[in-house]
Design brief:
The complex is a heterodimer of chains A (635) and B (264). Helix content of chain A is 40%, strand content 17%. Chain A has 25 helices and 21 strands. In chain A, the strands form 6 sheets. Chain A has a 5-stranded mixed β-sheet with strand order 2-1-3-4-5. Chain A has a 5-stranded mixed β-sheet with strand order 10-11-9-8-12, sandwiched between helices. The radius of gyration of chain A is 27 Å and the shape is globular. Chain B folds into 3 domains: 76 residues, Ubiquitin-like (UB roll) (Roll); 76 residues, Alpha-Beta Plaits, CATH 3.30.70; 54 residues, no CATH class. Helix content of chain B is 31%, strand content 19%. The chains are: A alpha/beta (635), B alpha+beta (264). The interface between A and B is large, with 35 and 37 residues.
């Protein structure tokens, strides 16, 4: 049981000793991203290899440190020396990896980066893995600060991701976990906590960017009992998985944030609303809640402060719109997940008509850091209007795909070119889509824009919850807009007319344009419709639904015009507007294209030229991929 | 302050007051300012879904489109019901609804007010027979007024429909026809044939009761039973059609007065 701050401190001291006990240790990144690339098999192989040697090597699970493009990742702590991160580890590497760990050397084949000390963000100190001189092969592994993917990152929200076992409360506590909650509940008045959160400048990380401290204050002052705090873990943007990684890698950080928030606001009941499609996250948060309850970090009289608080997990059934606060609360109440107008805010009348404070996973997760390190320290990171760091999921046509956490205000260029390592296959950068499906596409001329709430909004896009999709010159922007509108149309709850009917009609127009049926006036019609949907829709899903269309129209209007006026897709993506042809000059008659054609519409004689029968061609592009002589051209 | 007393604000240039919790739409109705609506009915709670009743609220230089059927004004709000932005939003809403339901005359009538003749969108063409605009009045009347909750929404987005559970014969429908009555677009139908009422869209057939006096089929058995039990009516009155009810009631009164008991 942890009933007093002193007991927590005692446990922290003993847990830290175990964490840094000098035994060689291997941590396998086993968040969903790791598991998808075979981390489970790597974990098993390492365990087996370690057992065969009857060794002292500890093989543990951990979350994702963000370098998803290098999964499966294994971190090995070499006692007395360093922590080595290995990338793209396969089960076949297990034997040699275990051997090297036991010998205190490096398995050079997979070594990616090293760190010489375990960093404790909450208390701001580093504990070196050893004082001994580093073995030369260890020294050869670059430091984290020398690896481009990590160099410019700053892990606050992801402070424990990939470093601790998410299933271990002891490890979380060893890293300074629950120290902020202990401090808040025993040394601070609720008003002081709210003042600190306000001063820190923390803004909601789920998309709205509303100042968190102000939200808490309004909720605390609102009339009505009981009050509720809610964690929105219904992350639904395509290609974005920041919150999943945080819950899977560091579930206690959210619970701690919610404990602090509940005390500041005066709530005794909390809810975590998490997607059913995140089974591992559900498992992790449930396990963490059980641990916290078992030792009295949740329940009655937490830290002897007199504050009672419990948290329940509710699983969302897969509706994107349930990430909207009022729809989420309706769903929590057991009703259809459908938004209502927020003329009266949920902080005043939310769940069951009671004052309810809903924050996103990353927002809650930031709270302990602010309390522990101080509001002024936090406010020193980032820009004037956007403080702290933000986790982004960087995906699409970029070399290093994964989760990145950077201070607010770094430029998009730094994100794409330095952290992301630029565009694969030597292609050209075309646009970056930020803010999820209802965000916008930002073109190359704005790459130097700082990533913060105001700057992204000024470009017609938004911060959103942190999705970033990089697009290269082979991306058709009309097709991109069509993709997102298709998503939003499916995910509209259907309550209000502009969103339900408007997104469907917008999609019709975009589909027509992509399929060569675009008509003069379509672009103007899209603008007109967009305005009506934005003004007329009930919730943020609808009011922001036209964004993908508006930003692509704003920055890539010529591409729309080429589709409509010339029936041409400049990026050569829209199938109805392109054709594949074989250049007789280049064709060697090798027949590879014909062999691969699923419709068998490529004919010719070996060692002479082949031709495509356009009438039967389905434009699948297999011939283009098959040809080794660049003889297949797209027009 | 929103709580407590009346809220003074300006509506189309007139200084007006909203009662506690009163919406802009209600104030507008009271003072004779016309705001078109589709999903609103005084008998049921507001839903704010059709977006036809939008108005523009100004605070200094800033303004916002709000839905008058659910928006309760703040002090000193300046509300305008006929700005370009309001008219544009309503026009788009009507255009979208007409693209969905080209057969509904009520929508054409409203459309003409806002200059919509033919919608500019490719829906499924004028032959499309959809009449339901998904305003949900039927659902609310069934739940809130009748108290049966026989119908609700199913699916989401463009696939959304109003239907009975599992789109099957309803256990809850009493065939009262309140949904038919309240529907603004004539999308719900019933038919009385051979001693039974068929609620067409709800695939539910309910036996009718014949009036004990004149013999005419006037309501469904379940409807009569519901009213009888709610009001604790004597069987004779419950089983009498509205036209004959006066006579039955009088006779019953006389009988009761003679015997000195109570009718109920």
């Amino acid at each position: 049981m942890i009933e007093t701050p002193a007991q927590l401190a005692e446990l922290r001291a003993s847990a830290r000793k175990i964490l840094l006990n000098g035994r060689p240790k291997a941590l396998v990144g086993m968040a969903t991203c790791g598991l998808a690339t075979g981390a489970l098999r790597v974990h098993e192989a390492l365990l087996a290899a370690s057992e065969r040697r009857d060794s002292s090597l500890l093989v543990c699970e951990t979350g994702c440190n963000g370098a998803c493009f290098l999964e499966p990742l294994v971190d090995v702590v070499l006692p007395g020396q360093a922590r080595i991160t290995y990338a793209n580890v396969t089960p076949e590497d297990a034997e040699e990896l275990v051997a090297s760990a036991l010998e205190g050397t490096v398995y050079a084949k997979r070594a990616l980066a090293r760190s010489n000390a375990e960093f404790f963000l909450i208390e701001d100190f580093s504990s070196p893995y050893g004082n001994a001189d580093l073995a030369p092969e260890v020294e050869k592994v670059p430091l984290y600060s020398q690896v481009p993917f990590f160099r410019d990152q700053m892990h606050l929200a992801m402070r424990n991701c990939g470093l601790i076992d998410p299933a271990s409360l002891d490890e979380y506590i060893a890293k300074g976990g629950y120290a902020a909650a202990s401090k808040a509940l025993t040394e601070m008045a609720p008003e002081e906590i709210i003042a600190a959160i306000k001063r820190s400048g923390l803004r909601g990380r789920g998309g709205g960017g509303f100042p968190t401290g102000r939200k808490w204050e309004t909720c605390r002052k609102a009339h009505g009992e009981p009050r509720y705090v809610i964690c929105n873990a219904d992350e639904g943007d395509p290609g974005a998985y920041m919150d999943r990684a945080i819950i899977e890698g560091d579930p206690h950080s959210i619970i701690e944030g919610m404990i602090i928030g509940s005390y500041a606001i005066g709530a005794r009941q909390g809810f975590v609303y998490v997607r059913q499609e995140y089974p591992l996250a559900v498992k992790r948060i449930r396990k963490a809640l059980a641990q916290a309850e078992e030792c009295g970090l949740l329940g009655r009289n937490i830290f002897g402060s007199g504050h009672d608080f419990t948290i329940r997990v509710n699983r969302g059934a897969g509706a994107f719109v349930c990430g909207e606060s009022t729809a989420l609360m309706a769903s929590l109440e057991g009703r259809v997940g459908e938004p209502r107008a927020k003329y009266i805010h949920t902080v005043e009348s939310g769940l069951w008509g009671k004052p309810s404070c809903l924050n996103n996973v990353e927002t809650w997760n930031n709270v302990p850091v602010i309390i522990a390190r101080g509001a002024d320290w936090f406010a020193g990171i980032g820009t004037e209007g956007s403080k702290g760091t933000k986790v982004f999921s960087l995906v699409g046509k970029v070399n290093r795909v994964g989760l990145i956490e950077v201070p607010m205000g770094v430029s998009l260029r730094k994100v794409v070119e330095e952290i992301g390592g630029g565009i694969p296959d030597g292609r050209q950068f075309k646009a970056i889509q930020t803010g999820g499906p209802s965000g916008g596409c930002i073109p190359a001329q704005y790459l130097d824009t700082p990533v913060d709430f105001e700057s992204l909004t000024a470009l017609g896009s938004m911060m959103g919850s942190g999705g970033m999709i990089v697009m290269d010159d082979r991306t058709c922007m009309v097709d991109v807009a069509r993709y997102f509108l298709g998503f939003l149309k499916e995910e509209s709850c259907g309550k209000c007319v502009p969103c339900r009917e408007g997104t469907a009609r917008m999609l019709d127009i975009l589909t027509d344009i992509c399929e060569g049926r675009g008509r003069t006036g379509d672009i103007e019609l899209l603008h007109d419709l967009a305005e009506g949907i934005t003004d007329g829709s009930l919730c943020a899903l609808g009011t922001s639904a036209p964004n993908p269309v508006l930003t692509t129209l704003k920055y890539f209007e010529s591409e729309y015009r080429a589709h409509v006026e010339e029936h041409r897709c400049p990026a050569k993506v829209c199938r109805a507007l392109i054709r594949y042809r074989i250049d007789p000059e280049k064709c060697t008659g090798c027949s590879l294209c014909a062999a691969g054609c699923p419709k068998k519409v490529i004919a010719g004689e070996r060692k002479k030229t082949y031709t495509i029968d356009q009438s039967g061609c389905i434009k699948c592009g297999l011939c283009l991929d098959a040809c080794r002589f660049d003889a297949v051209v797209v027009e | 302050m929103k709580e407590g007393g009346n809220v003074p604000f300006t509506l189309d240039g007139k200084a007006v007051e909203a009662g506690p919790g009163e919406t802009v739409l209600s104030v507008a109705k009271r003072i004779g300012v016309h705001i078109p609506t589709l999903c609103h009915h005084d008998a049921v709670s507001p839903y704010g879904a059709c977006r036809l009743c939008v108005v523009e609220v100004f605070w200094g230089k800033r303004s916002k489109i709000v839905t008058s059927c659910i928006y309760t004004p703040y002090e000193n709000d300046i509300v305008k019901t006929g700005t370009d932005r309001v008219r544009h939003t309503r026009r788009i809403v009507l255009e979208l609804l007409l693209a969905r339901c080209p057969q509904v005359e009520a929508l054409h009538e409203l459309g003409r007010e806002y200059g919509v003749e033919t919608p500019r969108f490719r829906a499924d063409g004028p032959e499309r027979e959809e009449r339901c605009i998904l305003c949900g009045l039927c659902i609310r009347v069934c739940g809130e007024v009748v108290g049966q909750h026989a119908i609700g929404y199913a699916n989401r987005g463009p696939a959304r429909v109003v239907t009975t559970p599992f789109a099957d014969r309803s256990e809850e429908c009493i065939g009262c026809g309140a949904c038919v009555f309240v529907c603004p677009t004539g999308a719900i139908h019933y038919e009385d044939v051979d001693g039974a009422r068929l609620m067409k869209e709800w695939k539910t057939e309910l036996p009718l009761v014949r009036c004990g006096t004149c013999g005419e089929a006037f309501a469904t058995e379940r409807q009569v039973e519901k009213v009888r039990s709610l009001l604790n009516l004597p069987d004779e009155i419950a089983a009498t059609c509205p036209r004959c009810r006066g006579t039955t009631h009088r006779l019953l009164m006389e009988k009761t007065l003679v015997s000195g008991g109570s009718i109920f």
